[in-house]
UniProtKB/TrEMBL annotation:
GO molecular function: methyltransferase activity
Keyword set, alphabetical order: Methyltransferase, TPR repeat, Transferase
TPR repeat copies, ranges: 473-506
Species name: Paenibacillus bovis
Keyword set includes ATP-binding: no
Name of this chain's protein: Uncharacterized protein
One Pfam family matching this protein: Methyltransf_28
Gene3D superfamilies membership: 3.40.50.12710, Tetratricopeptide repeat domain
GO biological process, one term: methylation
Length: 520
């Protein structure tokens, strides 16, 4: 309970939202390090491939309709660590090259409210080639207020009506973290649910994440007849809730609607939204819903109301796609707010293949099971799942111990497939800032165990070059042996000497260096 001096706010205007934005500005890309804020489920190569398939289908459809001369702008809202954008662009380029067909050019615009993130993306090594090609750009964008996109690289300002092609919007784990209204349906009436918020004030010592972890919400209710008026913009959806709901708290995405309306205004041809979130599109999921609680993960989020979004846009003539099955971890949907959505068969088929039949949600459910059984699965199963997940680096890092244990029985074919997968993985690896995985080290050691000395040496040298602390003696030993196997004797001896600087009593190194010195 709150006392009479505690201010009460509309839920969408509560200070928790400013605190959330303060968190992301304060943390920058550190927010996604070590999954402080979840990123894997919405940013792994598998979901990137699924999005690329849908975007490629959309580009094909635009070309088939005769709209191939103007570029398509893909605007990602809240691009976070940048990993999803990288995987989508990487795979989209490969699809276009592989197909060998003419489609409109594209520019992928990564946006965020936190300027620190925008600056960090511009400097990320993995994005530099995309920047040089002109297929990626960046913008600070306030989803609640902004009406224009100011592109950081090209300097272009995209204003209302500037785009000839539809704007393609990507929103992953986005709508659950922007302001939402909160209403309560009871006795056929609509009530506004206001909130009193208690949390420590900023004292220059407590970080935003620490203050967020101490938030307490206290709800109060008042009859809100404005939702029941005919001129309320989303009256038909509210009427549906009044008719079918009872004792139900409903988060309502008014801010999401206005954000999409402003993005839609940039183009003469409408928009396509691809979105993934903890979001329910089935009305039954909102029936008898309790007051929302903060879902804490460094920052916080709430459930997104995809049901209201589907109803509103279908009434406006859009086609809305959501899976027929219930989701487990992540719900992926598309809104085709376009003239004649049925004229986009390639995009819709891509959704069917990449989401409806088997998609990122099913993949993540399987991965949770695989993670629990890594020590009991075979090499073929590891290879199959790794391939299914788009040769994901995080899965490889998780499985190196099991791969090593299975190596003595591995066939030459399996070793060749491991090497091929490693090359694919490395070519599309996106380094997460503030995450200190030494992927090159893990690769080098696995290849060493497979007696692939030339390839092992390459990756171990990458690891040594990037190591900011002391290199472990095992790395120098593997490098020395690799050099000897490749008849690079002097270089091998140099690595032995470096090893002995780190570990002077290393018996194998002492024996080898003595042997080579006696031969001189």
């Amino acid at each position: 309970m709150t006392d009479n001096n505690t201010p009460v706010y509309r839920f969408s205007e509560a200070p928790i939202w400013n605190l959330l934005w303060e968190y992301y500005e304060e943390e920058g890309l550190r927010a996604w390090s070590n999954d402080q804020v979840p990123q894997y489920v919405t940013s792994n190569p598998m979901i990137g491939d699924a999005y690329a398939e849908m975007i490629f289908g959309f580009l094909q459809d635009r070309a088939n309709q005769g709209f191939g001369s103007e570029p398509v702008y893909i605007v990602e809202l809240g691009a976070g660590a940048g990993r999803l954008a990288y995987h989508v662009i990487h795979e989209l380029r490969e699809l276009i090259d592989y197909a060998g067909i003419d489609v409109p050019n594209f520019c992928y615009v990564m946006t965020d409210l936190a300027m620190n993130n925008v600056t960090a993306w511009q400097q990320h090594p993995a994005l530099q080639s995309f920047i040089a090609e002109g297929i990626v750009d960046f913008a600070r964008f306030n989803a609640v207020e902004d009406t224009e996109l100011h592109l950081a690289v090209s300097g272009k300002v995209i204003k209302q009506g500037d785009l000839k092609q539809p704007v393609l919007v990507v929103a992953n784990y986005f709508f659950d973290g922007i302001p939402q209204d909160l209403i309560y349906i009871g006795d056929g009436k609509v009530h506004e649910v206001d909130v009193a918020v208690q949390y420590p004030e900023s004292d220059g010592v407590l970080k935003a994440s620490e203050r967020i972890s101490q938030i307490q919400l206290d709800y109060t209710y008042r009859h809100a007849p404005e939702y029941e008026q005919d001129d309320y913009p989303y009256r038909s959806v509210i009427a549906m809730y009044q008719e079918h709901m009872e004792d139900s708290h409903i988060l309502f995405p008014a801010a999401a609607f206005t954000c999409l309306d402003r993005l839609n205004a940039l183009s003469e041809a409408g928009f396509l939204l691809i979105t993934a979130d903890k979001g329910d599109h089935l009305m039954e999921k909102w029936q008898f819903a309790e007051p929302p609680e903060l879902i804490l993960h460094g920052s916080f989020s709430f459930t997104a109301n995809y049901h209201a979004m589907q109803q509103v846009y279908e009434q406006r003539g859009a086609e809305v796609l959501f899976p027929t099955q219930h989701y487990s971890s992540i719900n992926i949907g598309c809104i085709l707010s376009l003239e004649k959505p049925a004229k986009y068969p390639n995009m819709r088929l891509a959704y069917r293949r990449s989401v409806e039949r088997f998609g990122p949600d099913e993949f993540f459910s399987l991965k949770l099971w695989v993670d629990q059984h890594l020590d009991s699965i075979g090499l073929q199963q590891i290879l199959s799942f790794w391939r299914l997940g788009g040769y994901d680096a995080e899965f490889f890092i998780q499985t190196t111990k099991q791969i090593s244990s299975l190596m003595p029985e591995a066939t030459d074919d399996e070793k060749e497939d491991i090497l091929s997968g490693i090359e694919t993985m490395w070519s599309s690896y996106y380094v997460m800032e503030h995450q200190h995985y030494d992927l090159a080290l893990d690769i080098g050691l696995v290849l060493f165990e497979m007696d692939m000395y030339e390839q092992s040496k390459r990756f171990l040298e990458i690891s040594v070059a990037g190591e900011k602390e002391e290199v472990v003696s095992t790395v120098y030993y593997c490098l020395a042996i690799s050099c000897f196997e490749l008849d690079q004797i002097e270089e091998g001896a140099q690595y032995l000497r470096k090893l002995l600087e780190v570990e002077p009593d290393h018996e194998e190194a002492l024996a080898l260096i003595s042997h080579f010195e006696s031969m001189e």
